[in-house]
């Protein structure tokens, strides 16, 4: 059934998620609605960047960490059975030599086993990181296609642009950036929910990218907007610098 308010179809239209009937009706509406045209344009750009983000299975930082760990883990050659030893002489020294040989064999087996376990753990961690990236991308797409998705555009320093998309029904929000300069060394951009003047951390922006899509960490709840600050690497529990921008959430 078609919604009474065609404005709510902007997100689904941008992601090609409408039926033929809905698309035709919305396109007739779009030709006469400047605000919907602007919203569709912004959402289409966001969806395109989201598609590029999903196509990358693992972020560069994860890939570099995996390769670094594998490089640090020394490969141990498989143990080669030694030629059968002659029957030991009945001396106490021979027993001691047998003990040392057995200890060396056990130590080699432990090292080899430990190396295998470590390599398996590195691969497992990489797989889990990739799954988290995919889950975040899926959640971001769900916000963009939500029937009640609303967006607001903001200007960032150095002519960069940001877009926040909020879905009250999902209690989630997505923030995208375009042309954002990389932070200074040892710094990171941190997002904050503005809870009526109290700032609540909403996650970090990937410092290696100038165009980003970030699913905000935590529920929107009663937040009225989003802010961005420059923080020490790893982020801060509370802002340590004035916000670069404060963007009110779009009203329903």
Element string (H = helix, E = strand): HHHHHEEEEEEEE
Classify the beta-strand content into a percent band.
Answer: 15-25%
Q: What's the helical proportion of residues?
A: 40-55%
Query: Strand tally, please?
Result: 8
| Helix/strand structural class | alpha+beta
Computed Rg: 28 Å
The coarse silhouette is globular
Strand order of the largest sheet: 1-2-3-6
- Poorly predicted regions are 52-58, 69-80
Alpha-carbon distance between the termini? Answer: 21 Å
Structure description:
With 252 residues, the protein is α+β, with helices and mostly antiparallel strands. The chain contains 5 helices and 8 strands, in the order αααααββββββββ. It has helices spanning 10-14, 20-30, 34-55, 60-72, 92-144; strands at residues 150-156, 160-167, 172-178, 187-195, 198-204, 212-215, 225-232, 245-248. The strands form 2 sheets. The protein has a 4-stranded antiparallel β-sheet, covered by helices on one side. It has a 4-stranded antiparallel β-sheet with strand order 5-4-7-8, with no helix packed on it. Helix 3 (34-55) packs antiparallel against helix 5 (92-144) and helix 4 (60-72) runs antiparallel to helix 5. It is globular.
């Amino acid at each position: 059934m078609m919604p009474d308010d065609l404005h709510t179809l902007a997100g689904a239209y941008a992601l090609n998620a409408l039926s033929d009937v809905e698309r035709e009706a919305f396109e007739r509406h779009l030709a006469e609605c400047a605000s919907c045209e602007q919203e569709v344009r912004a959402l289409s750009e966001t969806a395109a960047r989201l598609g590029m983000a999903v196509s990358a299975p693992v972020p560069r930082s994860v890939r570099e960490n995996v390769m670094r760990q594998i490089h640090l883990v020394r490969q141990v050659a498989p143990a080669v059975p030694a030629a059968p030893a002659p029957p030991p002489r009945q001396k106490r020294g021979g027993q001691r030599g047998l003990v040392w040989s057995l200890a060396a064999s056990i130590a080699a087996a432990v090292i080899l086993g430990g190396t295998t376990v470590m390599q398996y753990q590195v691969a497992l961690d990489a797989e889990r990181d990739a799954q988290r990236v995919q889950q975040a991308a899926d959640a971001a797409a769900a916000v963009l296609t939500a029937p009640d998705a609303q967006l607001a555009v903001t200007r960032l320093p150095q002519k960069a642009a940001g877009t926040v998309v909020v879905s009250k029904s999902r209690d989630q929000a997505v923030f995208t950036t375009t042309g954002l300069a990389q932070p200074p060394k040892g710094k990171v951009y941190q997002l904050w929910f503005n809870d009526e003047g109290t700032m609540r951390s909403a996650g970090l922006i990937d410092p290696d990218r100038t165009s980003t899509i970030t699913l905000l960490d935590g529920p929107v709840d009663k937040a009225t907007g989003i802010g961005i600050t420059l923080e020490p690497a790893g982020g801060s529990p509370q802002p340590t610098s004035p916000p670069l921008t404060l963007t009110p959430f779009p009203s329903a």
